[in-house]
Amino acid sequence: MSPASAKTNENASTASKEEVARFTAMADAWWDPNGKFKPLHQINPVRIGYIRDFVCAHHGRDANADKPFDGLKLLDIGCGGGLLCEPMARLGAAVTGIDAGDKNIAIAKLHNEQSDLNIDYRHQLPEDLAKTKGTYDIVLNMEVIEHVADVDAFLAASASLLKPGGVMMLSTLNRTLKAFALAKVGAEYVMRWLPAGTHDWHKFVKPSELASALRPHDVDIKDITGMVYSPFKDEWSLSQDIDVNYLVAALKR
Asked: What whole-number distance in Å separates Cα of residue 106 and Cα of residue 54?
C-alpha cells in the first residue's frame, strides 16, 4: 500500500482527525458551485456518468431509463454534503450516506429536505456501520481514500458492506510526479482550486496498491479509467490517462 498506510489495527479508527476537521470547517460551502468545493461540482457529471454506465451494464439495465437504479441499495462512504447521494437517489437507488464529519451530515440532511429526497444520512464510520451486518448493492468510495488514516482498514470495512456480486466504485489520485505537480502544487497553489493543504501527496494511492488491498476482501478491479481536465474547455472528461485522477469499478466475488 501507500507509504502513508498504517498497519491495520482493529481498534483503530479509519478517520483522520485532521482531515475531518479540515472538511468540517468548509462544510457550509458544500452546495456552492463556485465555492471551495467547485472542483467536485465540476467533476460530478463525469463521476455520475461513469457510475451509472458501469452499474447498468453490470445489472443489464438501460442507462437511459428514468430510474435505472430502482431496487438497488447504495452506500456513499465519505458523502460530505451529499453531492453524489442526491443524483444517485434521483437514479432510483435507496441511498445511505455516511461521513466522519457531523457538520457535513447536518448540511447534507438540510439540503436533502430542501430537495424533497429520502436519503438516509448518518454521522458514522464504515467500520461502525459494518457492525450492523447490513450490505449494499453499490458502495461508493469517491475522493475519500486519500484522506483516511488507515487505507487497509478502510477498504476492509467498505468491502464487508458490499453484497457478493455487488459493485464498488472508487476514485482517487495516483501517486505520481505528474499528480504532485498538477493535483497538489497546481490545484492548491497555482490555480487556487483547493485550499492549501487539502491533499497530502504521500497519501495518494497507485492503482496497483488499490488492487492489492481489495483482493484479500474478494473485491476485484474490473475497470480503471482516468479523469482529465481541459483548461481550454474548462471541463473534465474520461480518459485513458490515469496518471493523476482515476476512477475504478470493482466487483465482489
From this structure: 30
Split at pLDDT 50, 70, 90, the class of 16 is: confident
Residue tagged 437517489 (cell numbers) = 89
pLDDT at position 197 is 66
pLDDT at residue number 191: 60
Residues 199, 172 contacting (CB under 8 angstroms):
no
| β-strands 120-123, 136-142 pairing | unpaired
Chain-centroid distance, C-alpha 190: 25
Residue 9: band (very low, low, confident or very high) from pLDDT cuts 50, 70, 90: very low
CATH ID of 17-252, from 3.30.1490.20, 3.40.1440.60, 2.102.10.10, 3.40.50.150? 3.40.50.150
**For residues 91 and 68, is the Cβ–Cβ distance under 8 A?**
yes
Nearest-angstrom CA–CA distance, 141 and 247: 10
Better pLDDT: 187 or 168: 168
Q: In which residue are the cell numbers 438497488 written?
A: 72
Cα distances (angstroms) measured from residue 133 to each of 161, 189, 200? 7, 43, 33
Please count the other Cβ atoms lying within 10 Å of the Cβ belonging to residue 54: 22
Q: Counting beta carbons within 10 angstroms of the beta carbon of residue 190, is it exposed (0 to 12), middle (13 to 18) or buried (19 or more)?
A: exposed
Which residue ranges make up each domain of the chain? Answer: 17-252
Residue positions counted in the chain = 253
pTM exceeds 0.85 for this model: yes
